[in-house]
Amino acid sequence: MLTKLTGGKVYDPANKIDGQIRDIYIRDGRIVERPLEHEPVNQEYNLSGKIVMAGAIDMHTHIGGGKVNIARMLLPEDHRGDPVAHTELCRAGCGHVAPSTLTTGYRYAEMGYTAGFEPAVLPINARQAHLEMGDTPIIDKGGYAMLGSDDLLLRMMAAKRDQNAINDYVAWTMHASQAMGIKVVNAGGISAFKFNQRFLDLDEQNSHYQVTPREVLNTLSRAVYELGVPHPLHVHGNNLGVPGNVETTLNTMAGVEGYPIHLTHIQFHSYGTEGDRKFSSGAARIAEAINQRKNVSADVGQILFGQTVTASGDNMSQFRNAHLGSPHKWVCMDIECDAGCGVVPFKYKDQNFVNALQWAIGLEIFLLVDDPWRIFLTTDHPNGAPFTSYPHLIKLLMDKTFRNDVFSRISPDAQAMSTLASIDREYSLYEIAIMTRAGAAKLVGLHDRGHLGAGAGADITVYTDQPDREAMFAKPDYVFKDGELVVKDGQVVKVTWGATHTVKPEFDRGIEKEIKKYFDAYHTVNMEHVKVTDQHIADDGRGRVQVHECKGRREKTTA
Amino acid sequence: MNNSTLPQAFQSITCPACGLLCDDIHLARDTTDNLAVTQNGCQKSITFFGRPALSSSAKINGKPASLDEAITRAAQLLSASKQPLFAGLGTDVNGMRSVMRLADKSGAVLDHMNSNGFMRNIQVIQNSGWQVTTLTEVRNRVDLLVIIGSDVVSILPRFFERVVWNKESMFGQDTGKREVVYLGGRDLDTNPGISPDGRKPQVLPCDSAHLPEVVATLRALVSGKKLYATEVAGITISDLQNLAERLAKAQYSVVAWAPPALNFAHAELTVQNITELVKTLNKTTRSSGLPLGGSDGDMSANQVCTWISGYPLRTSYARTYPEHDPYHFSTERLLNSGEADTLLWVSSFNPERTPPATKIPTIVLGHSAMTFEQVPEVFIPIATPGVDYSGIMFRMDNVVSLPVEQLRTNDLPTLSAVMSAIEEACTC
Description:
Distance between the termini of chain A: 53 Å
Helix content of chain B: 25-40%
Shape of chain B: globular
CATH class of the largest domain in chain B: Alpha Beta
Structural class of chain B: alpha/beta
Number of strands of chain B: 22
Helix content of chain A: 25-40%
Strand content of chain B: 15-25%
Number of strands of chain A: 26
CATH architecture of the largest domain in chain B: 3-Layer(aba) Sandwich
CATH class of the domain at 140-451 in chain A: Alpha Beta
CATH topology of the domain at 140-451 in chain A: TIM Barrel
Strand content of chain A: 15-25%
Radius of gyration of chain B: 23 Å
Largest sheet of chain B: 9 strands, mixed
Number of domains of chain B: 3
CATH topology of the largest domain in chain B: Rossmann fold
Largest interface: A-B, 67 and 64 residues
Largest sheet of chain A: 10 strands, parallel
Strand order of the largest sheet of chain B: 5-4-20-19-18-6-7-16-17
Oligomer: heterodimer
CATH architecture of the domain at 140-451 in chain A: Alpha-Beta Barrel
Number of helices of chain B: 12
C-alpha cells in the first residue's frame, strides 16, 4: 500500500525544509523515498495549499499515573461541564482539566498530536502510569521515571557509593519502570518533607541523609549522561512557586558541571522579589542563562487563565501552596519511601496580580530564548492549563497583536511589572514545528519521530493555512498515525493504539542482589513485582513497546 | 489443558484475599490442582487459596447450559434492558476494563459491592481532599498509630506483622517502641496491637454510633479548642486531650480508619473529621491518614473506572456519556426504586459475595463455587484472578499495583473473555 501526500507546503526542520512544496510517500506506516515511476499509488491526498508537519509531540504532559487519577476523582464538578458521548467509533468519557484516558487520546490526535510523555512516573507506581497510558488511544506515549527523593538513592549517596553503582541503580529503575528518561522533582525535597522540612534550597541538606539537592542533581545528571540515555536529566527544580526562586534556578543551571539538563515548567521557577508586592519576573535572566548555556533546555509550563488542577510529585510545594487553591480541596500523599504527590486545583485569573504576572513571565521566556531547539511548548498539562489550550498558546506566540490585546486586559499592576508588550518577536511556522516536533523528538530521543524524512514513522499532520493560528492548530484537516488516517477535519475517523517508547541502558545486573536485599528488609513488596513487563503494557491488544537506542558513555568516566 | 508447565510449589505469590495484597505467599499445588498455603498465610489467604478447583458449568435458570448459550441469553437480557446495573465488580484490572467497554455500549450503571464503605472516602475527597500515606511509609515511619473504630485485623489480618511490628526500618527507628491507640468500637480484638515486648495498646472504647462526637472532639482538641465537657461517650476529655498532645508531638503519626466499620448515617462526616485533623497536625509536624479497605478488587475497579470514564464508581453510562453520583447510582437505591431492570453481578474472588435479593433478571459472572438462594437467570462461572489466570490488582493504599499469578490451569473463562463475547452478541 503506497500513499502519496501531494503538493503540501512542508515544514520539516529536522531536514531543514522551511515551507517548500514537497510530495510525501508512505508505505507500511513509514515515510519512504520517492518510489519508481511505474509503482502504483494506492491512495493520494491533494494537499495543495495545505501546511504539512510531522505529528506534534508533547514532551511533558501528565496523562497517566496515580496523581492524574486522583485529580479525576477530586473534580467531578469540572468534568460534568464537558461530557463526551460515545459515537459509532469512539467511546464515551469526559474532558477538561483531567480528562478520561480515552478522551485524552482522541483530543490529542484531533489537535494533530501523535505522542505525549508522562513526566512523573513513580517507579513504585509505574505500572499504573502504563495502564492508564495503555487506555489512551491513538497517540504514542512514554514516561520519565522519578528519582531523587527515593530512599535507596539518598541512602547510596549518604554512604558515598561510587557513581558506577548509582548508574546501575538508575538503569535498573529505567528497565523496571519502562521509562524513556529520568526525572528529578524537588531533588531530595519530597523526602525532606517526610522529615518535616518545609523548604529545601539547592545547598541545604536533607536532615536525615545530609545530602543536598545540588549533589542529587549532579549525581543524576551524570548518571543519565553516562548511561547514554538520550533525554537529559529532566529537572523539576526546588522551591517551585516561591518568589525569588530565580536564583535557585540559575544556580541549578550553573551547578551540574556541564552535564545536559532539561528544566521543566521553568515559568514556575522564574520569580524574582522586586516591586511593591515582592513578586517579579525573572524571565530575562532565565532566558539569558539558557541562551548562554548550551547544555540546558527548558519547557515553559505556561499558565493560561481559567480553572485547572495542579498534579505534581512535589508534595512539599503542593502542601505549601494548597491554601491558594480553588476550589479549596486538595490531596497530598507520601508514597512508599519512594516519592509523593500533591493534587491542588487552581483557578488562574487575569485580574489577579500574581496569576497575570505568571502568564506574562511564561510568554517572556518563550520570546526571549533565542534557540527554539532548546525551549518547548508546554502548559505542564494540566498544571498551567489543560493541553487543549495549546492552539491558543500558539496564537499568543505567533500573533503579536493578539498577544498585546490580551496583555492590555490583564491586571494593570502585572502589566507594569512585565516587558512583554515591548517584545516584537512572533514565532514562525518553522519555529513552531521545531518546538513541537523536531526539537521535541530530538530532546526525548525519538529517532524516527518528529520529522518527515525517509524512514520516519508516518505521523503527519496537515493544516489549512489560516491567519487565525488558534483556529488553524485546533482543527487539522488530516492526521496520519503510523501511516493510517486517524483524524479528518478535526474528528477521529479511526482508533488505533500507539506504541510505548522506552530505553534500556546497559548495566551491571549485580546491582539487583543489593536492591533485592533492600526491598526484602524495608519494603512491602517484592522487588520482582516492581518490574513492569512488556505484557503489562501491551496486554489486551493495546500497542507495543518500542525500545530506543542508548549509547553508553561509561568508559569516559572513572569511579 | 496442560498443567505440567506450572510448578508444584510457588513462592512470592500475591494474595488477592484482602487489600494488603501480601506478595510473599508460598503455596503448594497437588495433583488434583488443589492449592495450600505453606508459608506466610493468614486465615483469609488460607481460605481463599484453599477453595477446591471446581469445574462447573454455566446455568440458565438453574439448569446446566453451554457457555455459548449462557452468553447468548445474557446478551438477550442486556439488549432488552432499559437500565442495566453492573454491580459487585469483584475483578482485576483487565476484567474491569472489559466491564467498562460493555457498560459504555449498553448504557449501564457501575457500582461495587463495597461501595457503601469506600464511597464515604470518595465523598470526603470530593468535598475537602485529604492527606494520606501508603504501607511502606507506615512500615518505616509510624511512631504513633491511632485506629478509629476498628480492630484492623478482621479486614487486613497481617497488618501489624507487615507494617507495625516489622523488625527492621529504614531510619533506625526502634519499631518495638511504636505506640498504638484504639479509639472507639467495643470488644475489639486489640491483641495484635500489643508490642513484641508485651506493651499493651491504649484502648479508648465507645459504641460505634458515638464515633461522630468522639472524633469531632478529638479534632477540636487537636485544633486547640477549649472544651467545657469532661467526657464524651464515656471517654474522658483528659484522655482525648492527652491523645491530641501525643499526636502533636509525634514525628509521623498515622490515623487509620475502616469505612465499613463506620456504619452509621453520614459517616463521611466522621471520615472528614479524621482527615481534617490530620491536615491540621501537618501545619507543625507530619501526620497521615490511612484508609483501610481494598477487598474484592474494590480499589482496582475504582481506579479503572476513574481513568476510563473520568469519574470514580457509582457512574452511569445511561445517557451515552458518563455521569457520577455517589447517592443516585448506588445498587441499593437503583434496586429499591425499580430504576434498574437488569442486574449483572460480578464476583470472581469470593463465592460468598452473591448478588442482593431482587426481582429483576439477574446475570451472575461469579466464582465457580458460588451457590444461590435465589437462582439467577444466567450464571456463568468465571476464572479467579491470581489463581486461574494472571492479572494486575491495586492495593488498599490505591497506589501500589501488583501482578497476581496463574497457579493452575482450568476451563473457566476469564471475565474479560465472557464480557467481550456478550458485547459481540449484544444488540444494545
